[in-house]
Fold this sequence. Notes:
The chain is an alpha+beta fold and about 100 residues long.
Amino acid sequence: MLTWVIYDIVKDKPRTQVAKTCQRAGIMRVQYSVFLGDLNANEIDELGLKIKSLIDEETDRVYIFPMCKEDFSKVRLLGEAFDKKLVTNEIRELFL
């Protein structure tokens, strides 16, 4: 299932740890605090637990949005949408 992970984390160290956790989960960075990739339900749960252990729940915000292909096809990208330095062709192809 295509999954977005979007976060706003106050401190640098946990923010870096969350980014590395997302990368290790196999999802790709599309902006500095936005990741996208294909995860199954168990992988989404596991990622959520790992991120929860890294953040401060009083100050940080993390959104994990699993999307079915039908809903994903309705996503509209505006402006640059992705950071060109971070996004691979694999991600761009998801939106063609």
